[in-house]
């Protein structure tokens, strides 16, 4: 079971958040920024949900301090948004907030459940950046999106669409980087997030499997064995998400692929290496970056 620390003044918002979290999280309720910081320092906290305007104004310095002290926790700001506050949202992303929840706009229990999943996956991405610095943009984006969208059960075609390249080009870029094909990369992304969830020692393998929509706990354990040759407990002992990322890149360093069967579509795409669609990474025009997840109401965007 994960831990959510909260700084929220409204009982309705607490209720919605608890409904969204179901039985996957334990809650630690805090009265002010100081008690919130202490709660995060006392023990492993997976998600921090706070009112950005708890003191009447957006306290970005408090948020920055919180990010420094709990670098692996997902930070979710719950705000009442109006036209005067819209400009604050640019600074919210810069100071380390992962997800923005807009009161009465994006805070139904169903929406909050999706945002909790998204925030936790995004928080894992911070440990990946040092490992990906030397990769080409399309490859780097594929790895990052496989992690930040781990809860969404993306397909290889969906992953290619997010990066704005064809699936064949995506397969070719991953192959040139000596990384797994798209369908395997998506599984690696889920395993990296799963390993992060296992790190705090409070979550069971079955709970992680359920959170990441594996068919069952047995299916999750089988995937761990097939890709990593170990159990979920051993993943935790070996270092969690950082270790899984190193295992992924170890295959690249050795110039070999994982022995998981190739998806027929990837196999067909890889048969003609002499063909190219005329695009190179530089032709994309920009590097893919995941924006801070939020949805501004029409009046704030005006």
CATH class of the largest domain: Mainly Alpha
* CATH topology heading of the largest domain: Arc Repressor Mutant, subunit A
- Rough outline: globular
CATH superfamily of the largest domain: Homeodomain-like
**Spatial sequence of strands, sheet with the most strands:** 2-1-3-4-5
- Put simply, the count of helices is 16
Roughly how many Å apart are the termini? 41 Å
Labels describing this entry:
302 residues, five-stranded parallel sheet, Arc Repressor Mutant, subunit A, Rossmann fold, 2 domains, alpha/beta
What does this protein structure show overall?
By secondary structure, the chain is an alpha/beta fold. The chain has 2 domains: 2-124, Response regulator (Rossmann fold, 3-Layer(aba) Sandwich); 128-284, Homeodomain-like (Arc Repressor Mutant, subunit A). Helices cover 51% and strands 9% of the residues. The protein is built from 16 helices and 5 strands. The chain has helices at residues 11-21, 33-42, 60-69, 88-94, 109-124, 129-132, 137-148, 156-163, 167-176, 182-198, 205-211, 217-228, 232-238, 241-253, 264-269, 298-301, and strands at residues 2-7, 25-29, 47-51, 74-79, 99-102. Strands 2-1-3-4-5 form a 5-stranded parallel beta sheet, with helices on both faces. α1 (11-21) crosses α5 and α11 crosses α12 (217-228). Mean pLDDT is 77; it is low at 256-302.
């Amino acid at each position: 079971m994960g831990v959510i620390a909260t700084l929220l003044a409204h009982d309705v918002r607490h209720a919605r958040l608890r409904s969204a979290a179901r039985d996957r999280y334990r809650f630690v309720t805090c009265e002010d920024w100081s008690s919130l910081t202490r709660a995060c320092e006392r023990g492993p906290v997976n998600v921090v949900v706070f009112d950005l305007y708890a003191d009447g104004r957006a306290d970005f310095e408090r948020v920055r301090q919180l990010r420094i002290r709990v670098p692996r926790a997902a930070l979710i700001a719950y705000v009442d948004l109006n036209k005067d506050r819209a400009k604050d949202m640019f600074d919210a992303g810069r100071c380390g907030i992962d997800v923005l929840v807009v009161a009465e706009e994006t805070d139904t229990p169903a929406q909050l459940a999706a945002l909790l999943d998204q925030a936790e996956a995004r928080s894992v991405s911070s440990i990946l950046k040092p490992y990906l610095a030397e990769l080409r943009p399309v490859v780097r984006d594929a790895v990052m999106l496989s992690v930040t969208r781990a809860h969404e059960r993306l397909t290889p075609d969906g992953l290619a669409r997010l990066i704005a390249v064809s699936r064949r080009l995506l397969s070719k870029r991953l192959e040139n980087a000596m990384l797994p094909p798209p369908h395997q990369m998506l599984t690696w992304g889920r395993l990296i997030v799963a390993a992060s969830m296992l790190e705090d020692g409070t979550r069971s393998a079955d709970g992680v499997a359920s959170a990441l929509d594996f068919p069952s706990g047995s299916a999750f354990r089988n995937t761990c064995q097939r890709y990593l040759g170990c159990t979920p407990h051993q993943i935790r002992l070996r270092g969690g998400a950082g270790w899984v990322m190193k295992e992924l890149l170890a295959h690249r360093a050795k110039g070999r692929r994982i022995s998981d069967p190739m998806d027929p579509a990837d196999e067909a795409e890889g048969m003609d290496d002499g063909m190219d669609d005329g695009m190179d990474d530089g032709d994309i025009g920009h590097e893919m970056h995941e924006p801070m997840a939020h949805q501004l109401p029409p009046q704030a965007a005006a």
